[in-house]
Amino acid sequence: MVLETTEQAQTPAAPGERIRTATGDGRGSRLRTLPEQIVEQLGMAIVEGRYAEGERIVEQKLSDDYGVSRGPVRDALRALETRGLVRIYPRRGAYAVPLSLDLIADMFNIRARLLGLAASYLARLHPIAGLADLKGRAEALERAVGDTNIDSMEFAMANGRLGAALYRHCGSDYLADFLRDQGDRSIWGFIWRQRPLDFITPERRRESAVIWTEVSRAVHAGEEAAAERAVWDIMYTSRDQVIATLSQVRSETVSSHRVIYGSPAATVGRQR
Fold this sequence. Notes:
Elements: H1 34-47, E1 56-57, H2 59-66, H3 70-82, E2 86-89, E3 93-96, H4 101-125, H5 128-145, H6 152-168, H7 173-184, H8 187-191, H9 202-220, H10 224-247
Antiparallel strand pairs: 1-3, 2-3
Helix pairs in contact: 1-3, 2-3, 4-7, 4-9, 4-10, 5-6, 5-9, 9-10
């Protein structure tokens, strides 16, 4: 049995490749269990389309491919079921769930509303440390707009850290845990690991930074509704760009009823 040394250094492998060990000093990191490593690699295989819609995922084959017993594979499949990437049927086994554009739109819409609630709580609670954290990250994002050394994925991660600042300081452990779990234990985390899906152009980076600055301003001013609407705008514009990017390589469209906005005024220029 081989375990990796750090989470960040693990390189996703296709089914058929054994789990590999990556180098690193391991400081401040936790060694992941075998089921967790299989979840990462098998989850990425499903997200990237290496499994067809509804294709059966055979435990014994995965056990042979990864060189492990069926126990860790079974645990990994159950974890992937909780993330929405696998469906397990009694006496039938596990099957890959298609990652449709409608599903991606749902994830953005749900996260938009929950992050908006966190922003509203933060504006009302007004914690000094939370305000400083949000402002500092928004200013860092502004600086990152013109930094050619920061690629699209790094910029997306910086956006994600701003969202984390909202729920980390919102005063609701339940809401914070829910949003954290969505990022760590759902399809949400996987779709940002494939390839850049947003923030590809300087215009998109500038647009995102401007809106995050408005979120910070509204939260500092205690303007709950304005902060909430600005967060919706961030999430909905990103949703539209991600769907537009994926639509270029898929013969698929998103259902119109899933393309919602915070207000009628926000629809101007959002359809891509």
